[in-house]
Amino acid sequence: MKRRQFISKTGALALASLGTAGTGLFNLSLAQSARPRITDIRVHRMRTLGETGMMESAWAPGRPYMRRIGGGSVTEIYTDQGISGIAPGMSPANIDRMKALLVGQDPFDNETLGHQMRYTNGAANNWRDVGCIEIALWDIVGKVANQPLYKLWGAQKDKVPAYASMIQLSTPEERAEQAVRVKEKGWQGIKIRLHHLQMKEDIRTIELVREAVGEDFTIMTDANQAQSSGIWQPGVQWDYKRALDTARALDELDVYWLEEPLRRYDYDGLAELNRATDITLAGGENNQGVQEFKDIIDNGVYDILQPEILVTEGVQGLRAVAALGLANHKQVIPHHGGGQLGTIAQLHMIGTWPHCPWIEIMNDPPISPYTNGFAIFENAPVVDSEGNMAMPQGPGLGVDIDRSLIM
Ligand SMILES: [Mg+2]
Q1: 12 pLDDT band (50/70/90 cuts)?
Q2: Which domains are present in the chain?
Q3: Ligand 1 centre from 263 Cα, in Å?
Q4: From the CA of 143, how far away is ligand 1's center (Å)?
Q5: How far is the CA of 191 from the centre of ligand 1 (A)?
Q6: Ligand 1: distance of its center to the CA of 221 in Å?
Q7: What is the pTM assigned to this prediction?
């Protein structure tokens, strides 16, 4: 339509509305006021429902802590239409700054709001809070649209196999027993930590697990060596030779991937290792921002990208990394997302991605089963008897928190 024609048609429409319903301006202001507006942001601390025991994470030796059922915190963004959105708990210290930016805004404008959060408010130093806000905004959008987020974003699948991501460093015998129990419950894959002082104990662990579970079960491995640029972790530090020897031994045992075998920014070493071995290398949970994933791809660092919604620039960032991965023929299998609402948000995204065959679920029973974190939900998703987790079907994130647990 030519511009002149368009103007004359819209002019005619405005005149028509003047004649039938008062003024065209009145109609416009009605349409605007009908849009939801953000009114408040709060962070709820959630009560715990009990303790399940002390556990030391393999990647943080010397720092055991009590594992609990429930707990944690939840961000809630309210609107003037009685609809609210939930997300992982952001830092309470940043609420006022986020409120100054968001109150009065339309939650559907989340691309604009996301841009503002990143570049005008200092939040670029805190991707976690940006991710929390974006998840809650999208939950509102899904609830207003009355659609689960994965359907709203474009569904590709309704369920995904979950792999049991182990936490503690056990003896090879204990780990083999545990793997069998997990398989008996229906899980199709398990991830095992490689943190023994001696490489031969790591390899013996995988040998015993493979022997115990048979061929029809997926084994992933994680060396957690890419955290060395962040929090100091006093565990075993791998050099290139240990990474190379381990990678070659694991390949013989039909291991699906080796995760974070070297330091986070040792792109040269990682690329060299990738060229020298046949095993699939995975990583990225501690890499921040889309640009780092572009560098990872350009340098041939990892075969599987593992961005995390609370580290990699929130919803916008994670979707951008997914698009980058798809364009470069990489699988994208996110880091776990924190075990509560971050995991649920990623579950919906995975439902839209053809290049994501698994979801990481932190599950090391009996002390740290995934149901500990999910206990804050009234309608938590479950891993079914075939090892799959289905996308929630309710609107938005599709899960509700148990409000009796808010402290
Ligand atoms: Mg990892």
Answers
A1: very low
A2: 38-146 (3.30.390.10), 151-405 (3.20.20.120)
A3: 12
A4: 32
A5: 9
A6: 9
A7: 0.90
